[in-house]
Write a structure and sequence with these properties.
Rossmann fold; 14 strands; alpha/beta; 300 residues; 10 helices; six-stranded mixed sheet; binds adenosine-5'-triphosphate
C-alpha cells in the first residue's frame, strides 16, 4: 500500500505541491489527472526519491521506500530516454539489470513481452529503426519486464494509437490482476475512467477530486433526470422542486432543484404503479475536469 501524507514541495518559493494526501491499496490502479503543470510528475519524482519533499511522508507498506527496495518499482518517465544505437534486446536487458534482473532471465522473457505489446520489430533491431510508438512500447517493456510490484507510469498513453492504447490498457489490467499497485498519469479521460479504481485530480498542486469515477460523477450530477413511468407531465410539474419538464419520445427530461427531488419523483412513480426507467443524467469525467479546471483559485 502506498500512503502519501501531507506532502509539500516548492521550487524557489513557488509552491507546486500543497498538502497532498492520498493512498493506493495493493492491487489497485490510481489515475492521476490534472492540467499541464498541476504537479503530477513532481508527485511521481518525490515517490521515487528523485526529488525531496519539503515536508510530508511517503510510505510503502507502512515503511519509507528506501533505495534498497527500488527494485520493486517499474517507472516509465515522461521524458522517454532510450539509447538509439542499442538493439531492442540490449536496451531491455540494460534496464532490467538496473532493477536487479539477470540478462539471462530477461532474454528468456523478451519475445513474449514484444508479442504482448505487438512491437513491430525484432529483438536484434536497433531501437532507432523502430517507429516512435514501437520505441515507446520497448520502453514500456523495459519498465515492466522485471515484474515490479509497484508501477509508476507518467503519461503512458501519449503517442499510442487507439489499438496500442487498448493493448496498454489490457497490460495494465493484467499487471493489476497479478497483484501490482499502479499509479499513472494521463490526459485521456476515457482511458482514465476505464481502468482506474481511483482517480485523483491535481490543480495547482492541490487535490481537488479524489474517489472512484462513480463517486466523482455522482457528486457532479447535473440535477437532471430522465424518467419513463406512470407519472404524467402534469404530475411531474406539480412536484415541489421540479423546475421544468420536457417530453422526449416516450420519456420525460426533468430538471430538478437537487438530488433529493429525484428520489421524491422515483417514489411517487413507484407508488403510482410503474417506474420503467429512471436515469440520473450525470456529467462526464471530461466535463467535471473542465469545471474543476475553470473554478476560481482557492487560497492556502
Ligand atoms: N525542477 C524544477 N524547477 C522549477 N520548477 C519546476 C521544476 N520541476 C517542475 N517545476 C514546476 O512545477 C510545476 C509542476 O510541474 P509538473 O511537471 O509536476 O507538472 P505535471 O502535472 O506533470 O505537468 P504535465 O502534464 O505538463 O507533465 C510546474 O509549474 C513546473 O513548472
Amino acid at each position: 500500500m502506498l500512503e502519501i501524507i501531507d506532502l509539500n514541495k516548492s521550487f524557489k518559493n513557488r509552491k507546486v505541491i500543497s498538502h497532498e494526501n492520498f493512498s493506493v491499496n495493493n492491487g489497485e490502479i490510481l489515475g492521476l489527472i490534472g492540467q499541464n503543470g498541476a504537479g503530477k510528475t513532481t508527485t511521481f519524482k518525490m515517490i521515487l526519491d528523485l526529488l525531496k519533499p519539503d515536508s510530508g511522508t511517503i510510505l510503502w507498506n507502512k515503511k519509507p521506500l528506501t533505495q534498497k527496495e527500488h527494485n520493486i518499482i517499474g517507472f516509465l518517465p515522461e521524458d522517454r530516454g532510450l539509447y538509439p544505437n542499442l538493439t531492442v534486446e540490449q536496451q531491455i536487458v540494460f534496464f532490467a539489470e538496473l532493477r536487479g534482473q539477470s540478462p539471462k532471465v530477461t532474454k528468456l522473457k523478451i519475445q513474449r513481452w514484444m508479442d504482448r505489446f505487438d512491437v513491430k520489430g525484432k529483438p536484434s533491431d536497433k531501437v532507432k529503426l523502430l517507429s516512435k510508438g514501437n520505441q515507446q512500447k520497448v520502453q514500456l517493456i523495459s519498465t515492466l519486464i522485471h515484474d515490479p510490484k509497484f508501477i509508476i507510469l507518467d503519461e503512458p498513453f501519449s503517442g499510442l494509437d487507439p489499438v496500442n492504447a487498448g493493448l496498454l490498457k489490457k497490460g495494465i489490467k493484467d499487471m493489476k490482476d497479478a497483484g501490482a499497485t499502479i499509479i499513472y498519469s494521463s490526459h485521456d479521460m476515457a482511458n482514465v475512467e476505464q481502468i482506474s479504481d481511483k482517480i485523483i485530480m491535481l490543480k495547482n498542486g492541490r487535490i481537488v477530486l479524489n474517489g472512484t469515477a462513480d463517486d466523482i460523477k455522482n457528486s457532479y450530477s447535473k440535477n437532471k433526470i430522465i424518467i419513463q413511468s406512470a407519472l404524467t407531465k402534469n404530475d411531474l410539474e406539480n412536484i415541489n422542486g421540479v423546475m421544468s419538464v420536457k417530453k422526449v419520445a416516450d420519456k420525460f427530461h426533468v430538471e430538478i432543484k437537487n438530488d433529493l427531488i429525484g428520489n421524491k419523483i422515483a417514489s411517487q412513480a413507484i407508488s403510482k404503479g410503474a417506474l420503467i426507467e429512471f436515469i440520473k443524467d450525470r456529467s462526464t469525467l471530461e466535463e467535471i475536469f473542465q469545471i474543476k479546471t475553470t473554478e476560481p483559485k482557492t487560497n492556502e
